[in-house]
Amino acid sequence: MTYAETLGFLYARLPMFHRIGPAAYKNSLENTLLIDEYFGHPHRNFRSVHVAGTNGKGSVSHMLAAVMQDAGYKTGLYTSPHLVDFRERIRVNGEMISEQEVTDWVEKHAVGQNLWNIEPSFFELTVALAFDYFSRQKVDIAIIEVGLGGRLDSTNIITPEVSVITNIGYDHVQLLGDTLEKIASEKAGIIKGGVPVVIGETNPETEPVFRKTAQSLNSPLYFADQEFKAGYALLSLDGKQVLNILKHDSPAFPDLRIDLLGNYQQKNVPTFLKTIEIMQEKGWKISTDNIYNGLKNAASSTGLMGRWQIIGNNPLIVCDTGHNEDGIKMIVNQIKNTAYQNLHIVFGMVADKDIEHVLQLLPREATCYFTRAALPRALDEKILAEQANLIGLKGESYPSVKEAFTTAKMNAGKNDFVFVGGSNFVVAEILQQKK
């Protein structure tokens, strides 16, 4: 099999949440445990950090991986979904798993094997591939990002050095619950007995959930935003975000440079720093220089894309994968702080999101180009445009992301701003075009 044939096999044979939505979600870890046994429990052969949350878990995971790499540890990184190449999900020291590794593994363990008798999902098998690969690569540490929720996520068979929950917001409510408390309970499912847990953002609705769970498991609990905060932020001439980090209102990390843009990183960095502090207390040798060097090159050393990523100038073109109400709210705040003459928004969503509340957040002065990504789960662009027009947003619908993006660029002047977002998959199609 070629690599392309291997991906075709996986995509055609396995239910994929990111393509079809809730129908691919499993409400049990039974398959994961059976697959883990099949491979000889590879996750027991390396240490890990587990990262969950509604928003920010990808950024925090990449920050942690970048700093652990800089500290000299062989570092695995598992994230999802991918934007351009499936192999983005599985990295060691920033390098994606090879095409040959993926092909050989699928041919050996999936094609025609008894593994199919349990009908694994795409995500279940991808996690198994990652854990097996990290074990064979003999990584020192693996940063593991939760796919969805926490309690029933396929990654939730590990016992990590630290459990991290960045924040709680409304997303996947049909699966995780329709209140913040219910969603927090699902994400609190990654907390393990005696394992320290870091919560990125304090929320009066969810704090009791985390305190109760941590207490019942005798797990030390820390709220990062109660210790660290960004005193100020600005952009340097080399395009990096510069933060002045305070700990208990005293200077801790002055002029901390990070190559991940987006104002929301001011919330993610404290979560990352508290996690690193706990890792240091547990004996991991991570210096202040490692923290500065790792963050300065976090995106470039780990391959992170789609976080306030500038992909063009004159006009300014930015894409961002924020796709739920809290994520879009932060993006819109940053748009308001960006200088431009006219605003153009290329926007598409998946059908199982809270469409109305997200659309209400978009700036009314923007010219919108409503579209749909090329996957079954995507919301029809005409329906999206109709809902948007009813609440006062102006714009037309376009049957493909490419057509919407091309039209927006054609209409934009050199002092205008073109934003692309609403869905991981809209951003993915743009980045694939620029590959």
Describe the secondary-structure layout:
Layout (H helix, E strand, L loop, with lengths): L2 H11 L3 H4 L9 H9 L8 E6 L4 H14 L4 E4 L11 E3 L2 E2 L2 H11 L12 H15 L4 E5 L16 E4 L7 H4 L3 H8 L9 E3 L7 H10 L4 E3 L4 E8 L5 E7 L2 E9 L6 H17 L6 H9 L1 H5 L6 E4 L3 E4 L5 H12 L6 E5 L7 H7 L5 E4 L10 H10 L3 E4 L3 H11 L5 E5 L2 H10 L2
Parallel strand pairs: 1-5, 1-6, 2-5, 6-7, 7-8, 13-17, 14-15, 14-17, 15-16
Antiparallel strand pairs: 2-3, 3-4, 9-10, 10-11, 12-13
Helix pairs in contact: 1-5, 4-10, 4-11
Describe this structure in words.
The chain is of the alpha/beta class. The protein is 38% helix and 18% strand. It has 17 helices and 17 strands. The chain has helices spanning 3-13, 17-20, 30-38, 57-70, 99-109, 122-136, 173-176, 180-187, 207-216, 265-281, 288-296, 298-302, 325-336, 355-361, 381-390, 401-411, 424-433, and strands at residues 47-52, 75-78, 90-92, 95-96, 141-145, 162-165, 197-199, 221-223, 228-235, 241-247, 250-258, 309-312, 316-319, 343-347, 367-370, 394-397, 417-421. An eight-stranded mixed β-sheet has the order 4-3-2-5-1-6-7-8, sandwiched between helices. Helix 4 (57-70) crosses helix 10 (265-281) and helix 4 crosses helix 11. The protein is globular. It starts with a helix and ends with a helix.
Oligomer: single chain
Give the biggest beta sheet.
8 strands, mixed
Cα separation of the termini:
24 Å
Q: Low-confidence segments, ≥5 residues, pLDDT <50?
A: 17-21
The proportion of residues in beta strands is 15-25%
Shape: globular
| Helix/strand structural class | alpha/beta
Mean pLDDT: 92
Record the strand order, biggest sheet.
Answer: 4-3-2-5-1-6-7-8
Radius of gyration: 21 Å
Question: What's the tally of helices?
Answer: 17
